[in-house]
C-alpha cells in the first residue's frame, strides 16, 4: 500500500518535533520543511531541524530562507532593537509575534505539497497553551486549509493536520516522551543559542510543561 505523503513544518522546537513524530507514527512519508527567517536562534533551530528530520526518516528536506522578515521587523525575534520579554507571560499578542508568519509558512508548504502530490500538511500549532499568537488558532488554520484548496489544482486536496492544537505543554511533554521524540535535540528559547535563557515566554512555557509532567528538561539552561 502506498504511503500518504505529508509535508511537516519543523521549526526545531518541541511542538513541531512531536507533530512530525505523530506523522511518522501514522505511517506517512515525510517531507521535512524548515524556514530560516533571520530569527535570533536561527543557527540552533536549523541544527535541531536537521536532527529531527533524520529522526523521522524524512525522504527529503527543504530549508527555505526568508530574509524579508528581517526587513519587515516588527518582532523581537527578527528585530534586535526590540527586546525579548523576560518578565513572564502577558495578556494580548506579544512582541515576539512575527507578522503573518504561519500564513506565509503554510503557503510555501502548500506549494511544496502540491509539487510532491502530498495530501497532508502537519503543523505543530498549540492554541490553549501558546503565547497568544493569532496564527496558532484552530479556526485560523481551518480557514487557511480552505483557501489553499481553493487556490491549487483541482486534484490537489490538502488536509492541514494540527495534532497538538488542543493540548497544553504538559500533555505535549508527556506525549513526546511516550513517542520517543528526541527532546534533547529540540530548542524553544527565543534569544540564546548556547544555553536556553529560561526566562523568555517560550522557555517559561517549556519549563512549566516539564515541571508539571514531573520530568527534567534535557536541554541546558543558563544559571
Structure description:
By secondary structure, the chain is α/β, with parallel strands linked by helices. The chain is built from 7 helices and 5 strands, in the order βαβαβααβαβαα. Helices cover 38% and strands 11% of the residues. α1 crosses α6 (169-179) and α6 crosses α7. The protein is globular and about 50 Å long. The chain starts with a strand and ends in a 10-residue tail after the last helix.
Short description:
With 223 residues, the chain is an alpha/beta fold.
Strand content: 5-15%
Determine the N-to-C terminus distance: 52 Å
Mean pLDDT: 96
Please describe the biggest sheet, giving its number of strands, its sense, and whether it closes into a barrel: 5 strands, parallel
Overall tally of structural domains: 1
**Coarse structural class:** alpha/beta
What's the gyration radius in Å? Answer: 17 Å
Write the CATH fold name. Answer: Rossmann fold
Percentage of residues in helical conformation:
25-40%
CATH top level class name: Alpha Beta
Chain oligomer state: single chain
Helix count equals: 7
Give the ordered list of helices and strands: EHEHEHHEHEHH
Uncertain segments of ≥5 residues (pLDDT<50)?
Answer: none
CATH architecture: 3-Layer(aba) Sandwich
